[in-house]
Write a structure and sequence with these properties.
Layout (H helix, E strand, L loop, with lengths): L1 E7 L7 H11 L5 E7 L2 E4 L3 H5 L8 E8 L2 H14 L3 E3 L3
Antiparallel strand pairs: 1-4, 1-5, 2-3, 2-4
Helix pairs in contact: 1-3
Length: about 90
């Protein structure tokens, strides 16, 4: 299992476009269990409605988890989306 924490940096927080980017990427790795956690809630990254339900705002922490056959590749792809699309930055704490 791989876990990576991010701080949401997008001024609009977690919205439809950023959620769609993550879900689209997650759905390339159907052999992995991919989750996002925020505010005590854990949802699958394979569901846009689940991801949107997190309602993460700027400055909030988002924890991504990958477990399964291609977990390293999946996490690398998800990290790329978070950084490239300026959704969030690595939480270095």
């Amino acid at each position: 299992m791989i876990r990576q924490s991010f701080i949401i940096t997008d001024q609009d927080g977690f919205h439809a476009r950023s959620a769609n980017d993550l879900v689209y990427t997650a759905n390339r790795f159907l052999d992995c269990a991919l989750f996002a956690e925020h505010g005590g809630k854990r949802v699958t990254l394979h569901s846009i409605l689940g991801v949107l339900s997190l309602s993460a705002r700027p400055g909030d922490e988002l924890l991504l988890t990958a477990e399964g056959g291609h977990e390293a590749e999946a996490m690398e792809a998800l990290q790329g989306v978070m950084i490239r699309e300026r959704i969030g930055r690595w939480n270095e704490e």
